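Changelog note: in this version the structure field was regenerated for every chain. One regenerated record is shown below for reference.
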Amino acid sequence: MLKRDLLELCLLSLMFQGDQYGYELLRRLHDVFPDVQESAIYAILRQLCREGATERYQGETSGGPARKYYRLTQAGQDRRDALLKAWREVRDAVAALGIQ
């Protein structure tokens, strides 16, 4: 599992918890992966939307610019499940080699 797949899994898992707005997703991922560029995360979000794994919509404004929210679709849940299965297989294989 490559880092891009891992980032995608993290994004889908965050949205699995509920609708999220773009900056919040970025901030939460950046806390865990500080070396990942903002543009890379937004590129993955755009790709997920194009593929139908997520939907983007405008949230209500409260004095500032409208926030772009992302929600997981059924296709996104299926993608998350597949990536989670692949992640667990890689994790178990690495652990079987004694690498923790």
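Spot check on this record: The radius of gyration is 15 Å. The chain has a mean pLDDT of 92.
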